[in-house]
Each structure stands twice: as C-alpha cells, then as structure tokens.
Amino acid sequence: MSTTSQRLGWGQKIGYGSGDFAFNLYWQGISLYLFYFYTDVLGLPNAMAGIIYAIGSFWDAGTDPIMGYLADRTRTRWGRYRPYLVFVPIPMALGYILLLWHPDDMPVTSLGIVALIGQLVFRLLFTMASTPYSALMARMTQNSEDRAGMAGARMLFAYLGAFSVVALAGGLLENAENDSDAFMSLAIISGLLATAIFWICFAICREPPESDAEELRPTLKQTFASLKQNTPFLIVFAAVILMTTGVTVIGKTMIYFFEYQMGDRNGAQIALMAFGLTGLLVIPFWTFVTLKTSKRFVWMVGSFFLSLALITFLFNPAETQNAVILNYIAISFGAGAFAITFWGMLPDTVEYGEWKTGHRVESMVFGFATFAQKSAVALSALILGVLLDVIGYQAGVEQSEATLSGLRMIIVFVPLAGVVSSVACIYFYPLSPQRHADIVAELKAQAQ
Question: Which of 43, 138, 326, 330 is deepest in the core (most CB within 10 A)?
Fold first, then answer.
C-alpha cells in the first residue's frame, strides 16, 4: 500500500475532518440532550431512561466490529469506505427524526418502546457511516504526522459541530412553544445539514487504489488473532473505555446542574457553548504539542489538567454563573487533549498489528475502538440513571440540598475515576513517533 505513504495536503485533511462536524451534529445532540429528553420531555423514569439509552449504545457498539468486517470487504469504484458517506446519510437523518419524536397521549411503557425502537434504528445507521469513516483515516495515509493533523482537523470540526448543536438547541428550546417541538426541529435541521456535509466529505477525500496483496483479506480468525497480539491497540481500547465513560458524564449532567443548582436552564446552553468554543481554541494548541512531543505525553498532560479542573469544581461555591462556566472551560481545556490523542493513536496501531502479525485489519481496529467508545457511553448512561435514583433526583421539581450535593459528586468523581484509570493504561503505550516511523519503514522494505 505504498500510495498511502504520500504526504497529504491540508485540503485533504480538512476535507476529511469536515465529516466529524456532521457526525457530531448527531453525536453531541444525543450525548448532551437525549437523556434529558427522556427524563424531562418524554417523562420516562430515571432508571428506564438509563436502560433504554444503554441498550441503544450497546447495540451501537456491538454492530461496530461487524460493520468494520463488512466495510473491509467492500469494493466499489469509489473505494472501500467512501461509498458509505453517500448512501447512508439520508436514512440516518430520518432515523434521527424518529429518535427525537414525541408521540402524544401514550402511556409510559409505550413511550419507552418507541424510544427504544428509535435508538436501535438510528444507532445502526450511525454505525454504518461512522465505522467506515473512521477507518478511512488509516487508508488515506500512513504518515504519523499527517494523521495527527487529520485528528486535529477532525476534532476542530467535532467541537464546531458540538458548538453548533448547543447554539441551535438553545435557541430552539428558548423560542419554541414546547420542548418536544424544539427537539423535533433540532432533528430536522441537523439531518439536513449533516447530509450535505457528508456528501462534501465524500467529494474531497480520496482512497488509494487496491493492491493485489490487499485483495487477500485475512479471515475472521486471523483478524481476531491479530487484534489479540496488538498490544498498543489493546492499551488504547482499555483507556478509551475508561476515559469516555467519565468524560461523557460531564456533558450529560451539565443541563441538570444549571437547571436545579443554578436555577437557570439557559445557563447550561451558555456553558455548553463555552465548552465547545474552548475545544475549538485548544485543539490547535494540543495538535502542536502532539507534533512536538508524543501522543502519549499529551494524553497524560491533558489528563492532569482535566483532573485539576474536576477537583476545583468540587470546591467551587457556584455562587455565580460565570464562576461555574470558567470551571467548565478549564475542564474542556484538559478534555481537548484526549480528543486529539485517541484518534491520532488509533491508526498507528494498524501498522503495528500489520508488522506484528502480517495482517492489516484497519477497519476492525476502528470498529472495535468505536465499540469501546460507544460501550463507554452506554456505561455512563447506566451509571447516571442509577446514581440519579440514588441521590433522589425527581424531574421537574425543586431538588433537596442532599440531591444537589450528590449531583456535584457525580459530576466530579465519576469523570475523575475514568481519567485517572485511563492514565494508568496509557502510561504503557509503546508507540513513539520514531517507533511508528521505523515500523512503517520496515513494512515498506518487506513489500519491495
């Protein structure tokens, strides 16, 4: 696959990264608002909301490796992965509308069934596009610095997508006649915009032609054997589960904190926008530091700042909205480092696995990585649903001091546990930039 060793221009990097804007119109809408939509708009019990959310996320996660296996065997005149950016977006947009549909005059059990169906349909379609898109990075280039640049561009667009979702949702929730209409409008607008951006991403990105060696794909048994021996991948797999479980709770709880602790739900929209804007500003910084040091170093340094910001939140008196928003900005600064390093590390593990076992299984690497990411999201929903019941949270009523104190504990200690344990994993990540370059050079020599 010598063509993938060619350096990429910034046009290709930005074109690839634009796809994550579209994905995050959906992903952030789900991560930030869906749990609240279930508890405070549909009126589902906390535990039921957590279970439905978790089932959908585990379903999403479980289909990722399967989709990776199928995408790896796709052959079209447009390439292996790009066709999914053309044909899946319209069904996915319709699935998002189903996900945020609020049927009237239905008992709670029926609402729960409708919500679950929406989860299963939308998340399957999301997987059918997101797994090939993620694997596309590994096919476009084998250069580690280019991949760091692609990861930076991807995360810039991801935060821009998050910022756009928050701005759009905040305006709709403020001005719509009711919350259910606001969420339906959010689904329609997001679907139209995402579809257009997916098609732009398809038009800009390019895949190298298939070589004869690549036509001989490893069997399923060989694929799993390769992943099992890929130590860097296994380390990233474990670290991303731990980190994502913790960080996801931060976004899910923000709207609860502002509505019930600060008495101003609109403040959550401001905080979320500040969170996303901070990510936009710090991604170039973390990308620069990554290029000058290593992905492992940036993960650990970012985790230090994130942990410090979380501990500060525990003692923040929350007397003013600005003080809380500044605290969330500090949290976003640290979290931005994780976003860069995860997507930068992952494609490098593809070459390690190929060097170690002789089998290149890029789509399965990304399939299992997104499986880890989405499983962590499911786990965070389960944890949040259970803990909200434990602290006595009830939707739409004034919360007791004990409940508010418990909410703060959830916001701080669940993420902190994920951050610290992920660092314990990533400390052992063995691929420095030079080590990866040596592996790529050795693979080239073997191919000649």
Answer: 138
Q: How many domains does the chain have?
A: 1
In sequence order, the β-bridge partners of residue 76 are 79
Q: What is the pLDDT of residue 212?
A: 52
Rounded to an integer, what distance in angstroms lies between the CA atom of residue 117 and that of residue 306? 36
In this structure, is residue 437 part of a structural domain?
yes
Q: How many CA atoms lie within 13 A of 415 on its CB side?
A: 31
Measured between its terminal Cα atoms, the distance across the chain in Å is 11
Domain with 24, as residue range(s), is: 12-206+221-447
- For 445, half-sphere exposure in the C-beta direction (CA atoms, 13 angstrom radius) is 7
What CATH number is given to the structural domain containing 25? 1.20.1250.20
The tens digit of pLDDT for each residue in 309-343 reads 999 999 998 888 999 999 999 999 999 898 788 88
Mean pLDDT of the chain: 89
Distance, CA of 154 to chain centre:
11
Q: Is residue 160 part of a domain?
A: yes
Please report, to the nearest 10 degrees, the dihedral formed by the alpha carbons of residues 379, 380, 381, 385 taken in order.
Answer: 110
Q: How far apart are CA 171 and CA 269, in angstroms?
A: 9
Residue 213 has pLDDT above 70, yes or no: no
Within a domain: residue 2?
no
pLDDT in the model for residue 420: 97
| Residue count of the chain | 448
Residue 353 lies in a domain: yes
> How remote is the C-alpha of 186 from its chain's centroid?
19
Structure tokens at 421: 């344990």
Residue-wise pLDDT tens digits, 126-144: 999 999 998 898 888 878 7
The alpha-helical segments, DSSP class H, found in 293-361 are 295-315, 321-357
- How far apart CA 438 and CA 350 sit, in angstroms, is 14
Q: Which pair of structure tokens corresponds to residue 216? A: 């001989």
pTM: 0.74
Estimate to the nearest angstrom the gap between the alpha carbon of 296 and the chain centroid.
19
DSSP state for residue 82 in the 8-state scheme: T
In terms of Cα–Cα distance, which of 405, 399, 411, 345 is closest to 372? 345
Number of Cβ atoms within 10 Å of the Cβ of 402: 10
| pLDDT tens digits for range 165-195 | 988 998 998 888 889 999 999 999 999 999 9
